[in-house]
C-alpha cells in the first residue's frame, strides 16, 4: 500500500474510531470517555494534514524547489505534535469540570465495550502506520502512528478509570484518570514536535548510518587518495550526502568521473534514493585529520 493510500485510509479509520468513542460517551455520560472522543477529533484532523503533506512531498523537484518537497512531511509531523498537545489541554479542561461536579455513569459496561472496540482498531492501525512509515521513511506516517499510540494509551487509562469508578463508587476517579492520561499524551506530543523540528533543522543521519556510509566510501576509493568533509542530512524519505574526493594530480576528468560514479552507485545500493554530491579536488587538498582513506 502506497503512502497516499495509507494516509487516505487513516482518515476513514479516524472517522470510524471517533464515531465509536462518541457513542461510548453518549451511552455513559463519562467525562473521561468524552475526553477520549475529543482526542479522536484531533486524529481526524491530523490524518488530513498527513495526506496533504505526503501528497506535496511526493512532488518532483521544480524550479522553485530544486531539492524537492521532502520536508513537507516534517511540517505535518510538527502539526500533529501540536494537535496532540491541544488535545491534552482539552482533556485537562474536561477533567477539571469532572472534578468540580462528579456524576454517576450510565451503562458503563456497554460504553466500555464500544470504547475498547475503537481502541483495538486504533492499536492495529497504529502498528500498520508506524511499520509502513518506517519502511517508507515517511515522518508523516510515523508521526500519525505514534499519535494513534497515544490515543490507545488514553483509551486504556480512561477504561481503567471508569472500571475503578464503577467498582468503588468513587466517581471522581473518572476525571482523575483522564487528567493523568492527559499528562502522558502531553509528553508524547512534545516529543513528536522535537523530533520533527530536528528534521527541519537538517539533522544528520544516525551514527550507525553514518558509519555505514563511511565504510562504503572507503571500500570504493580505488584510484582516489581520500574523501573528507563528509556531511549528511535527511528530509523525509530522502538522505543527502556530500563530500570532497581527493585524486592524484595526473588523474583525468574521465577517470575522476568513473570513481565518482562507482561511489555513488554503491551509496545508492546502501541507501535507496540517496542524493549525492561529490566535489573532486587535487592532491594538495589532502587532509590529515578526519579523512576517509581507501580500505
Automatic annotation (TrEMBL):
SUPFAM superfamilies: Cation efflux protein cytoplasmic domain-like, Cation efflux protein transmembrane domain-like. Belongs to the cation diffusion facilitator (CDF) transporter (TC 2.A.4) family. One of its GO terms (biological process) is intracellular zinc ion homeostasis. PANTHER family: MITOCHONDRIAL METAL TRANSPORTER 1-RELATED. GO terms for molecular function: cadmium ion transmembrane transporter activity; ferrous iron transmembrane transporter activity; zinc efflux antiporter activity. Residues 8-201 form the Cation efflux protein transmembrane domain. Pfam families: Cation_efflux (PF01545), ZT_dimer (PF16916). It comes from Pararhodobacter oceanensis. Residues 208-283 form the Cation efflux protein cytoplasmic domain. Keywords: Cell membrane, Membrane, Transmembrane, Transmembrane helix, Transport. The chain crosses the membrane at residues 7-28, 40-58, 74-92, 112-131, 152-173. It is found in: Cell membrane. Its main location: membrane. It is a multi-pass membrane protein. GO terms for cellular component: plasma membrane. This is Protein p34. The keyword RNA-binding does not apply.
